[in-house]
Design brief:
This protein has two helices and six strands. It has 89 residues and is an alpha+beta fold. Strands 1, 2, 3, 4, 5 and 6 form a six-stranded antiparallel beta sheet that branches.
Length: 89
């Protein structure tokens, strides 16, 4: 499994090996802190002050083709929430 992330509606999917790499990547793009988690409908991931609605951050565990295997569990979400840097917009 790989951790897949896409920033915003027009972004490309990027695979990462673990949460530490994901947090470093997300902070480098100044996505901001998590407002709420999305588990269906629009997709799987989270909204931030900078990325919300259809323009949210996709974040989930998937196969080599980026097909969803499972969303992040509660512990993984807590790590993301704890480590993302606040960004003032």
């Amino acid at each position: 499994m790989k951790l897949w992330i896409r920033i915003g509606d027009d972004g490309d999917y990027r695979s990462l090996d673990d949460l530490a790499d994901a947090i470093e990547y997300l902070n480098s793009l100044s996505v901001g802190t998590v407002d709420r988690w999305i588990d269906a409908g629009l997709g799987v991931g989270f909204e931030t002050p900078n990325f919300h609605g259809y323009d949210f951050v996709s974040c989930y565990w998937g196969d080599d083709k980026a097909d969803l295997v499972r969303p992040l569990d509660a512990g993984e979400r807590a790590v993301i929430e704890c480590c993302l840097e606040e960004v003032f917009i």
